[in-house]
Design brief:
- This protein is mainly α and 294 residues long.
- It has a domain of 205 residues: Hypothetical protein af1432 (Orthogonal Bundle).
- The protein contains 16 helices and 2 strands.
- A two-stranded antiparallel sheet has the order 1-2.
- Strand 1 and strand 2 form a beta hairpin.
- The two termini are 36 Å apart.
């Protein structure tokens, strides 16, 4: 089986709603559902979060990041962290755990390395999107961070299936001959990896029941069109994705190509520039992305 055939199978399953999630994802989704209840109290939320050590550490770390600790002392408890962050940000933190768990826990070191790099990339995009929305596009920073966290759901799901379909880790062969004519009709309309990932990602987003503005922003990322300077949430997410210093391991560009491209991105913002704002916000981006990686 080659990569195109494996993608074909996964896309067919995605279109049928046949997605495979681990037990840990189901547990985290229950926490997310409980937090969505408007009657959920800080005490109840704290008890749920404390039952998940990784989530507890992430919540406290984010509360102490430069973005959220500008006007307070270090937080040392989950309850105090929730009070500082608020429930909207808390839902984003839970979403970050869900997205990370989508990839499962492979025993293959190559898959684990790709998952870790993809998560590092996602955390950087989330942190950059938060800063860009607050400093440039003037959109809701929590929504932007949420969009950054979930923008690679399709990629995480593909990596979760890599043990079943090892060919998913193969590099794209742009010189490969046409595929056999007896493959399912998906091949007639889906002609590249990105399109397959978009279909799979859309199915995962639907399953996770994410807010429509976030879904629309991720869709914009798949299409790859944005305004400069950025205006919409989709624009913000696209720019954050391009500025991330750790590229996605699923990105077909070489590190050199990506670095050369991002170094050329700049524009005027009020009395400053994008690059000057990024320099001023460097500590915020660094500490928030590090807190998300925990």
């Amino acid at each position: 089986m080659n990569k195109a055939e494996a993608l074909n199978i996964l896309v067919t399953r995605a279109n049928q709603g046949d997605l495979v999630f681990s037990a840990s994802v189901a547990t985290s989704l229950k926490i997310k559902e409980a937090l969505d209840d408007p009657d959920c109290s800080i005490d109840a939320a704290s008890k749920m979060i404390l039952n998940e050590p990784l989530l507890s550490a992430r919540v406290v770390a984010i509360a102490n990041s430069a973005v959220y600790s500008r006007m307070g002392n270090d937080i040392t408890s989950v309850k105090a962290a929730i009070a500082r962050l608020g429930f909207r940000t808390l839902r984003s933190v839970v979403a970050s755990l869900v997205v990370r768990q989508l990839a499962g826990s492979s025993k293959d070191p190559k898959i684990r390395a790709m998952v870790n790099k993809l998560w590092e990339h996602s955390a950087q995009v989330a942190a950059l999107a938060q800063v860009l929305s607050r400093r440039i596009t003037k959109l809701d920073p929590d929504t932007a961070m949420f969009a950054g966290i979930v923008h690679e759901v399709g990629g995480f799901y593909l990596l979760s299936r890599a043990e079943e379909f090892p060919c998913l880790l193969d590099k794209d062969d742009l010189t490969a001959p046409p595929l056999p004519g007896d493959l399912p009709t998906f091949i007639d309309t889906i002609i590249d990896k990105e399109s397959a990932e978009a279909i799979i990602g859309r199915a995962v987003l639907k399953n996770l029941q994410l807010p429509q503005p976030v879904v629309d922003a991720v869709e914009a990322l798949w299409f790859g069109l944005r305004a400069m300077p950025p205006e919409s949430l989709g624009d913000t997410l696209l720019l954050a994705n391009e500025l991330a210093t750790t590229p996605s391991p699923l990105d077909t560009r070489t590190d050199t190509e990506a670095s050369r491209y991002t170094s050329e991105i700049d524009f005027v913002v009020g009395d400053g520039t994008l690059n000057s704002i990024l320099e001023e916000s460097e500590d915020e981006v660094r500490t928030l992305s590090a807190a998300l990686i925990i």
